[in-house]
Design a protein that fits this description.
1 helix, globular, alpha+beta, Ubiquitin-like (UB roll), five-stranded mixed sheet
């Protein structure tokens, strides 16, 4: 499978989303795609932040921006936090 289904929490707007993310992209690219998707799903203006990070909820691990998703500890069904 070339995608993972994950839950992404965005505490800034108190929302949680389930998304499929491709495993062959970097964390930085996924972060931009996730922010764009959240921005489009909301009626309120939500800016795309360059200083945002993804954190694995179960461990508190900040995912390295340059790492490809398949080389991280993210697994199917994991919960991530967008900070």
């Amino acid at each position: 499978m070339n995608k993972l289904l994950v839950k992404i929490s965005y505490p800034r707007i108190n929302q949680e989303y389930e998304m499929f993310i491709p495993i062959n992209k970097t964390v930085a690219k996924i972060l931009m795609l996730v922010q764009k998707a959240i921005s489009e799903l909301n009626v309120d203006f939500i800016p795309i932040r360059k200083d945002a990070v993804l954190v694995k909820k179960s461990t508190g691990e900040v995912l390295p921006m340059t790492e490809i998703i398949k080389n991280t500890s993210i697994e199917q069904g994991d919960s991530l936090i967008l900070l």
